[in-house]
Specification:
globular, 242 residues, 6-stranded antiparallel beta sheet, single chain
């Protein structure tokens, strides 16, 4: 990863706690699925998945969830807001489209995101569309409630503009939500009974990633065909012996 200067274009609150940040970076190349680090004056370096695709350069999009005023993410957003340009390190990560998965001719590519894991999966999805990928692709996005959904315009465009499928699954339904409900993995398994020839990219918390993988393996998905940044820093928990 190298140090780069990123011009700050916009910082916008797009739902109750997620900010969309757009940057301009002139000397960057990356592969869909990779991430960058935002360098703070304190010396801290905070990773965020790149939420835009490579063909959108020099513009980059980030999605930053701010859980509260004491959070590190709040510090990041305030730093971005208060500067016309920031320092980033990029690119990083090997959970991307050039890791050999496309050459393995998967029957189906599953793109599975929890919360702001949406950013990485959106980049993968947009890049596959741009490449005119001819295989089957299914994007599943899990959220706690309908109020947590963001990037509505992009979602509408994605659903109308490509042959790939896009599904949003909400844990906590209410009278205003007419879409799918339940656990994210349940929706995937409901749609796909045999995953032995499929590949998956999963982005979310450590528990979400490994919990989803555990369930998908029951339908034939192998870990060798499953990709996540989580694998690089969090070993898989041992399964309890029976």
């Amino acid at each position: 990863m190298e140090d780069l200067t990123a011009k700050v274009n916009t910082v916008e609150l797009i739902n109750k706690d997620v900010y969309q940040v757009t940057l301009q970076v002139n000397d960057l190349s990356f592969i869909a699925g990779q991430y960058l680090m935002i360098a703070l004056p304190t010396g801290e370096q905070v990773p965020y998945s790149i939420g835009s695709a490579p063909h959108e350069l020099p513009n980059l999009t980030l999605y930053i969830l701010v859980s509260g005023p004491e959070s590190l993410a709040h510090k990041v957003v305030e730093h971005i807001k208060s500067n016309e340009a920031i320092t980033i390190k990029a690119p990083g990560g090997d959970c991307h489209l050039e890791n050999g998965v496309l050459h393995s001719a998967p029957e189906h590519i599953l793109l599975i995101a929890g919360g702001t894991g949406f950013a990485q999966i959106k980049s993968l999805y947009s890049s596959l569309v741009e490449q005119k990928f001819s295989g089957k692709v299914s994007f599943y996005w899990g959220l706690r409630s309908a109020e947590d959904i963001f990037a509505q315009a992009w979602l509408a465009e994605a659903k109308e503009g490509a042959s790939f499928s896009v599904d949003i699954i909400v844990n906590e339904s209410n009278d205003t939500w007419q879409g799918r409900t339940g656990w994210l993995y349940e929706a995937v398994l409901e749609d796909h009974s045999n995953l032995s020839n499929s590949a998956a990219f999963i982005c979310g918390s450590v528990g979400m990633v490994y919990g989803t993988l555990d369930q998908l393996e029951l339908k034939g998905l192998t870990q060798e065909r499953c990709f996540s940044d989580v694998f690089a820093y969090a070993p898989r928990p041992a399964k309890p012996s029976l």
